[in-house]
Amino acid sequence: MIQLKGIEKYYSTGFVKTFVLRDIDLEIEEGEFVSVMGPSGAGKSTLLHILGMLDTPSGGEYFFLDQPVHSLNERQRTELHKLNIGFVFQSYHLIDDLTVYENLETPLLYKKVKTSERKGIVSDMLDRFHIVAKKDLFPNQLSGGQQQLVAVARAVMTSPKLILADEPTGNLNSAQGEEIMELFKKLNQEGTTILQATHSERNASYSRRIIHLLDGWVDREERQA
């Protein structure tokens, strides 16, 4: 599904290059659950943003579903992202002035799904995530755990092939965090590929493979039973 060859990311200041990622080679197969770990500044979020096509690498090649992402223009990348990738952020990224229902509906509007079909999909998702009673509330009326639940529901609205989660439980208490991780586990069992960046050993224990980053390099990989 994903193949990275020699991916680099750096920022130039005058003649000085500050590297965030260096020579990343990585393959992720469809149906995997992978965690990226490492200390702050290791490059975890940058790697996820490049994989999610929210950022572009400074060098190297990125293939997603056999498409050469590094050669696509911005419109083509946006289309590829929109059709295949759901993103879950630590800070939820819900739209403050939209209700829960409207936040969930937004990805379907981007995909120009018909009104009647949209209603059915949103209703199913509200039911599946047990948030029917919250549908008319705004994000600031929800707890952190509830907001992240809505954010995950929104990420899977369009049945993406890949979910990218950047510190998805970072702002939650342990019970809320466990609920989100169990949700990811279930989605993965249903066939969704999941890649998460996390500091948490507990969260990483849900994945089958852990990639350790250090100073922008892949330090080591480990597989779990």
TrEMBL record:
GO terms for cellular component: membrane protein complex. Signal peptide: none annotated. It comes from the Bacteria. Keywords: ATP-binding, Nucleotide-binding, Transport. Residues 2-225 form the ABC transporter domain. GO terms for molecular function: ATP binding; ATP hydrolysis activity; transmembrane transporter activity. Transmembrane segments: none annotated. Belongs to the ABC transporter superfamily. This is Phosphonate ABC transporter ATP-binding protein. It comes from Handelsmanbacteria sp. (strain RIFCSPLOWO2_12_FULL_64_10).
